[in-house]
Amino acid sequence: MSIGEIIVGKYLAALAVQVLLVVGSLLYPLIMSGFGPLDQTTLWLSYLSMFLLGAAMMAVGLFASSLTSHQMVAGIAGFAMLLVFWTIDWLGDSVGGKIKDFLIQFSIIARTNDLQKGVLDFSDVIFYVTLAVVFIVLSIQVLERKRWR
Questions:
Q1: Helix crossing, 3-24 with 40-67: angle to 10°?
Q2: Calpha distance 115→130 (Å, rounded)
Q3: How many other CB atoms sit within 10 Å of the CB of residue 66?
Q4: How many domains does the chain have?
Q5: 128-134 — which CB contacts under 8 Å span 24+ positions?
Q6: Please, are residues 140 and 3 in contact by the beta-carbon 8 Å criterion?
Q7: What's the domain range around 122?
Q8: Percentage of the chain with pLDDT > 90?
Q9: Which of 13, 52, 86, 118 could bridge 128 with an S-S bond, Cβ 3.0-4.6 Å?
Q10: Cα angle 129, 111, 85; round to 5
Q11: Alpha carbon separation from 47 to 26, 43, 118, 122, 135 (Å, rounded)
């Protein structure tokens, strides 16, 4: 098997576990629907945002684990990278102006706001898919480079 197949297989396995977790959490809306009607659009787009956020975060974590052979270092590196993506909109708030508008485009949390309100904006979906693909490709490149050293 090639390194790319191993990385993609590991990522798809993680996605399968996440799908099981997301589907398992559908029990809560099912219970709540017994007390009144739910806004189906908001519900399903919120679940989509939860899945896409998790998929992007897993790709970043996979990249962090490809950088080192130590689990603890990989965990800390992944946490640090995700913390930057998480807090980048707060950094933009402190700077303001055009820099704020530029930085908020890279916030993984701000991108979920529209989806959780029931507004499907394809730029948010494309952001998460692109982020996941970029970090999977980077993971493959890092391991290929290590193999040739």
A1: 150
A2: 17
A3: 23
A4: 1
A5: 128/52, 128/53, 128/55, 128/56, 129/52, 129/55, 131/56, 131/59, 131/60, 132/11, 132/55, 132/56, 132/58, 132/59, 133/59, 134/59
A6: yes
A7: 3-148
A8: 59
A9: 52
A10: 80
A11: 9, 6, 10, 15, 22
Question: What is the pTM assigned to this prediction?
Answer: 0.87
Would you say 54 and 18 are in contact if contact means Cβ atoms under 8 Å apart?
A: yes
| 111 touches 118 (CB < 8 A) | no
Widest CA span of the chain, in angstroms? Answer: 61
pLDDT tens digits, one per residue of 46-95:
999 999 999 999 999 999 999 988 999 999 999 999 999 888 878 877 77
Per-residue HEC secondary structure of the chain comes to CCHHHHHHHHHHHHHHHHHHHHHHCCHHHHHHCCCCCCCHHHHHHHHHHHHHHHHHHHHHHHHHHHHCCCHHHHHHHHHHHHHHHHHHHHHHHHHCHHHHHHHHHHCCCCCHHHHHCCCCCHHHHHHHHHHHHHHHHHHHHHHHHHHHC
Distance between CA 26 and CA 106 in Å, rounded? Answer: 29
Residue bearing tokens 């219970």:
31
The encoded tokens of residue 97 equal: 């102006």
